[in-house]
## 1
Amino acid sequence: PVDWSPDGLTIVLNTFKTGTAQDIVILDAATRKVETVVAESVRRDMGGLISPDSKWLLYSSDTNGSLQLWVQSFPTPGPTVQVSEHGGSRGWWSRDSRQIFWMSGDLRSLWRADVVAGTQFSVRNTLKIATLPPGILSIDMTPDRTRVLAITPERIGIGSEDPPSGSRSGRRLNRQRRQHKARRPLGLHHCASGLR
C-alpha cells in the first residue's frame, strides 16, 4: 500500500498492467473492489497520497515528459493540476491539508506550496525550502513537516576506487572515514529543520 484514507476505508496502491507503465488504483477495504483513480495510459502514475481532509490525491506522473507532482480530486477523480515545475518525485501533505511539500525530480531540493482553499484545486507561494545532499536513497519528513531525514550512500572522495591503503592519500582517506563514522553513522543525514 502507498497510503490509507484517514477513515481507514480506502487503500491506495500502485499497479503494473500490460499496456500501461504504472497506475494508481484504490481498494475499498470493506468490499475489496478495485478502481483506477488516475486514467490508465502508457505514462507512469505513481505514489498517491490522500490529503488529511480526504478531498485530494497527490501523485507523481510523467504525463508531460518529465516526472512532476500532480493533484486531483478524491475520491471521485476530476481534473488534474500540476503542482511542481522543477520535477516532483515524492510529496507530502501538511497535517491540515493547507500545504504540500515535495522533493524535486533531480532529488536535490525540497519545495513547499500553499494550497488555496476552494472547490477547484490550486497552489500559490511555491518556494524552495532546502537543498538536499547528493545520492539520496530514501527520504521522509517528520509528521509535523518541520524536519527531513535522508539516507545517502556513505561516500568520501571522488569515484569508487580507493588509493592503496599504505599510500599517503590512502592513510588520509582511512582517517577521514574514521572521523566521518564518528560524526554520522551509516550515511543517515538530518537534512533540514525549521522548514515552515
## 2
Amino acid sequence: ATDAECGVIYTPAKRGTGTHAITAAYDGSLLQEPAQASTNLEVSQNPTNSTLECAPDRIDADPTTCTVTVVDTVTPPNPLGGVVAFESDRAGSFGNDPATCYLVESELGTASCEIAYSGAANTAGNYTISSHYRGDETHNPSDASDVVLVRNPTATSVTFEVAASEPLGSRVEPGHPANCVVTVRDTSAAPTAPSG
C-alpha cells in the first residue's frame, strides 16, 4: 500500500459553535478509485469570568461607581470586547440609559468598563447590583454581582450659624466663647429626621 497526503486549514465561522462535520472527497485518478472520509470537529467559544466591584460600597446621596472586569480564561486568550448590561434588585438609577457599558481591553483577554449607580430616595438598605456580559464573537457570556449599602439618599439642606455666648449678636470678641449650630433639614417629599 502506498499513501499520499495533503492538508488544508479550516477556520470555523465566528459564533459557529457546535459540531462541524468535515468531509474530504478524493476524485480518484487513472489508477485509483474515488473515495471520501469525514470527521467531526467540536467548536466552542472561550469561557469567561466576570467580577463586579462597586466603590464606595456604602453611599448616601452620592452615586457609587461599579466596575466590571471580564477575563478570557483560556490560554492563550482571544481579544475580548462586547457589551455589559446592568440591573439592580431595587429601585435606583444608573448613570447610562440603557444601563450598559462597552468593554475596553487593558491587556489581551482582559477588559473592563464602569457605570455609576444611585439608590432611590427614602429607600435605604442593601442593593444587589448585577452585571451581564453578553459575550462576543469568540467568547461566552458571564455574570457577576456586588452589594451596595444605601443609607438614606434623600435631598438635604444645611445651615450653619455662629453666635456669641453673651448678648453680642453675631459678633464674637477674642477670648469669648461662641455657640456654633448646624441645622440639617431633609427636603425630600417624604422627609425623615436626619441622623449621623
